[in-house]
Amino acid sequence: MANTEASWTDSVEDAVNSVFEPVSKFLGDIVFYTVNIFGTDFPLIVGWLVVAGAVFSAYFGLAQLRHLKLAYRLVRGKYDQQDAPGEVNHFQALTSAVAGTVGLGNIAGVAIAISIGGPGATFWMILCGLLGMATKFVECTLGVRYRQVHADGTVSGGPMFYLRRGLAERGLPSLGKVLAVLSAVMLLFFSFFGGNLFQINQSLEQVQSVTGGEDSIFSTSGGSLVYGALIAALVALVLIGGMRSIGAVTSRLVPSMAVLYILACLLVIGFNIDAVPGAVATIVTEAFAPEGVAGGFLGALIQGFRRAAFSNEAGIGSAPIVHSAVKTKHPATEGVVAMLEPFIDTVVVCTMTALTIVIAGGPLYQETRQAATSGGEVDTSTGYGISITSDAFDTALPWFPYLLTIAVVLFAFSTVITWGYYGLKCWGFLFGHSRTKDLVFKVIFCGIIVSGALLSLGVLVDLADASLFLAALFNIVGLYLLAPVVKRELHRVLEYVRRRDAGETEEEIEAAEAATGPVSRGGDGTTSLTK
């Protein structure tokens, strides 16, 4: 029976791979095109994302640092506007977006990055995360500025809308339409395979590893099917409730799983407290003078930048879809809140993972570093990355593999529900919104969850990764062209905050804005100064 089960899944895998492998290779070679810099391959798409972060950081005067306090106050609800269009508050929008980025990459990807690039890669990871905060600010402000509020009060937003509407305002309607459609197609494809199938497949592997490996009940087709069906049912329940349901779930789930994971990291660090100063010094020193890293300084930088860029998704265009659902009359308020997303994902969670692995110095990490240092081949799979992290925790917490499994499943679940929402909005943009059309998407999406428990479909996942970062090419072009709009929105919200802090009412502030000069109105009815 087991052989029969294996044979039909292998047949499906082989059939799909044979069809899509040429397409995946062609697109991957383009999107992830690399240039060799002092012996290290540097993907140009990473440079595209990092440069955008640097440009926006300069253009907005390091807004990601200057307005961190404002972001905190907004998340705490100090300036919430309950009568504003939208579906969720700032905190719920933030946790929903974080749910889509904090995932397996924070556990597995970081382990691989510092194994190949050395501890110094952590420093560059943090820097890239800080730069990504500026990009996230720009795209999420635009997401709210050009969103569409439907008659039933639900909201649709994201790159599809600000590229089409925003570039039309700039006199480039044709370019805007093309970029909008391409972005929607790329993000929709990723939602099916990268944000869904891959997450389920990898989380199931971790469940199997702690429940008996090949002898686990979850290693049989029946057990895998039960796992996939259970996750699909839970995801369906959340998606049926729409953005309000997603916000309610993620506002509880994301803080809980983040705190759980960070506490586990702190426990390991606490067990090795004497090693902390040395580990921090190593991270800083090896950022500029790494030992045994191909490409030296640039090798560490590339690994750190690559991990951060792939992890926080700044510039991809995915996060604005969920941030657009916030209740606000001032688009830049959510842009400011969105800056916290790369900070949480990269500066906090990724750094905690890296610091834990470096301090613990587990045998698997040491073995992998030795292989990388000697020029040997390093396994870069997600499963192996999880094993490195688990091995580090095991030095202090022998029961950690079970805790890690819970974290992996929760991370995967939260990622899937958020990408389900992203995919639904892209689907609606391309095919129109109706109860029937939305139901068709949800059935397909949940069906892929079940298939992800049975099939890995690696070629489709690779193709999805290429599609996701191809979306960044289209999105960032629009961000550059629309940056002046964001600057006006930032000035407007800072004036709004100043007036609120001075004790003025919403009515007084709106009257003052109306008297200032000509305003343009976004699809949600928000006003934007054009003078």
TrEMBL record:
Localization terms from the record: Cell membrane
Swiss-Prot/TrEMBL keywords: Cell membrane, Membrane, Symport, Transmembrane, Transmembrane helix, Transport
Entry's Gene Ontology molecular function annotations: amino acid:sodium symporter activity
Ranges where the record places region Disordered: 505-531
Transmembrane segments annotated in the record for this chain: 42-63, 178-198, 218-241, 253-273, 343-365, 399-422, 443-461, 467-486
Membrane topology field: Multi-pass membrane protein
Main location: membrane
InterPro entries in the record: Na/Ala_symport
Cellular component annotations (GO), alphabetically ordered: plasma membrane
Pfam family, one: Na_Ala_symp
Protein family: Belongs to the alanine or glycine:cation symporter (AGCS) (TC 2.A.25) family.
PANTHER family referenced in this protein's UniProt entry, alphabetically: AGSS FAMILY TRANSPORTER, SODIUM-ALANINE, TRANSCRIPTIONAL REGULATOR, LRP FAMILY
Designated name of the protein: Amino acid carrier protein
Protein source organism: Streptomyces taklimakanensis
Lineage, top ranks: Bacteria, Bacillati, Actinomycetota, Actinomycetes, Kitasatosporales
